[in-house]
Amino acid sequence: MAETMSPPKSRLLDGPRGSKPKSRFSRRNIFLYGTLLLVSVYYLLPLYVMVVTSLKGMPEIRLGNIFAPPVDITFEPWVKAWAEACTGINCDGLSRGFGNSIKILVPSVALSIAIASVNGYALANWKFKGSEVFFTILIIGAFIPYQTMIYPIVIMLREIKLMGSLWGLVLVHTVFGMPILTLLFRNYFTSLPEELFKAARVDGAGFWGIYFRVMLPMSIPIFVVAMILQVTGIWNDFLFGVIYTKPETYPMTVQLNNIVNSVQGVKEYNVNMAATLLTGLVPLIIYFVSGKLFVRGIAAGAVKG
Amino acid sequence: MSHAENPRGAERSARRPRQLFRNLNAKFASLPMILTALVVFVGGTAWTVAHSFTKSRLLPKWDFVGFDQYERLWNSNRWMISVENLMIYGVCSLVLTMVLGFTLAALLDRKIRFESAFRTIFLYPFALSFIVTGLAWQWILNPDFGLQGVVRGWGWESFTFDPLNNPDIVIFGVLIAGLWQGTGFVMVIMLAGLRGIDEDIWKASRVDGIGVAKTYVRVIIPMMRPVFVTALVIIASGIIKLYDLVVAQTNGGPGISSEVPAKYVINYMFQAQNLGQGFAASTMMLLSVIIVLVPWAYLEFGGKKRG
């Protein structure tokens, strides 16, 4: 953009800008787009295979090949995956896991973001003695393998009578979401102009007043980024779900794995793929809708790990 | 509102020696962070490490046995297989995600059309759960109906590609799925790094008549060292956690040939009811993370003060 604004004199001296226009089908372009298209096929293939398989009947799967589009499109596998597939003695399909995941997701996302945003705000604007030390421990803690903390948390949850309940899992998600979210919010609040904070201070606003009336309204984008990060992260979690809940409260990923990898009965690949797609649908929709913000979320985690 | 909140009060107390009640609201608000950092992260980790030196079985108990659990761990066939698998997976996955991620990013950075469409395609697997990825690839690699079956159906009867049922190469079957999911993430980090490089560098290399490939290898990659290091640390600490993908795709099979350390820990803690082994194994995982992190932290923050 800025280049077009340059004075015409230098333009005359330099001659035309940019590289020489090339034919659309130069060797470079064929190589470039060919490679990218080939890789795209590799990336899209599994999704395509899942969709195609989930729309076929079992006889067609046994006879045909997995890449062939369905001859007789049937939505029965989807219905079965959602409402009839069995895990152990429960035969009400993935709908149960979906409900559990929603019940885990909503409070976890709300709680973790509320806590982490206030934390980040305190770290950015109200530093106190030791605040940076705790923050450093928190960030280092993000690299500790979950396996070393899993059992002590079992004991803690048992002590407060939350082991096996949805709320126990909500608490676990809040705790483990804290490092990345606090980092995200701290960096964002630090980047806001300090005059803003000082002006609010002079006007007599206190800790919570500034947070709710100045910081919060200015940080909607970063809250959206945090939400995307948490929704996909918590929805995709398997480890915490399998350890801290019991069969009735299993989140969707755990139930999905139990349905597909169950050793009893005949394998119904079409139902399995429909179930897999159903579980992947929520993060996929978020990904395709949010676009650049999703990228920003993962970049935020990467820039200053 | 408390007294410390009032600006004049804050000014007055700033002159006095620091006291516990200054900035009380901020301290109150940071309580969840402080508790998480101290109780769960530091406390929990210390608890687990300490209990790895006991003979806890069904329940944790304080029977100090020194390094017994570690001796048993390193004599266990299953643990050795787990470590070996993680090494193979880790090295291949690190090298390949970095090389492929950078190559894709470089291709996307050549001012092409439909860049955002390509980027969306390369990154979408990263939004999925490892369980979804594992199950999808389990189906594609199914020997009867999957890739092998299709190629045989085309008439190449002796074609064999059945990694998930072959103990020798099963970990590469997991690797294929892992690469599919993780490469897009590396690509995004690399692309951000490439975009941060000054356009003048490219102009200069064009003036000097240096080829595109050579410019990447000689100039761009050395300039992107910090990006590579960050990506390396993030991927490496993610690889050590490898668990869900294996559970979904192979569940450690055939036999125990695709076991990984993180799965060893969970199985011994929650199924085999041998807590001591689980604690010792998880302490080894912690140790490997430290081995990855300490040199990096030293390079990154050593000397200068942490900001």
From TrEMBL, chain B:
Q: What domain of life? A: Bacteria
The membrane-spanning stretches of this chain are 28-50, 86-108, 120-140, 169-194, 215-240, 279-299
Instruction: Supply the Pfam families for this chain.
Output: BPD_transp_1 (PF00528)
* Membrane topology, as annotated: Multi-pass membrane protein
- Gene Ontology CC entries for this record: plasma membrane
Q: Where in the cell is it found?
A: Cell membrane
Domain ABC transmembrane type-1 residues, every copy:
83-298
Sorted alphabetically, the Gene Ontology BP terms of this entry are: transmembrane transport
Alphabetically sorted, this entry's keywords are: Cell membrane, Membrane, Transmembrane, Transmembrane helix, Transport
Instruction: Show which residues constitute the signal peptide.
Output: none
The main place the protein resides is membrane
Q: Member of which family? A: Belongs to the binding-protein-dependent transport system permease family.
Quote the protein name from its UniProt record.
Sugar ABC transporter permease
What species is given as this protein's source? Aliiroseovarius halocynthiae
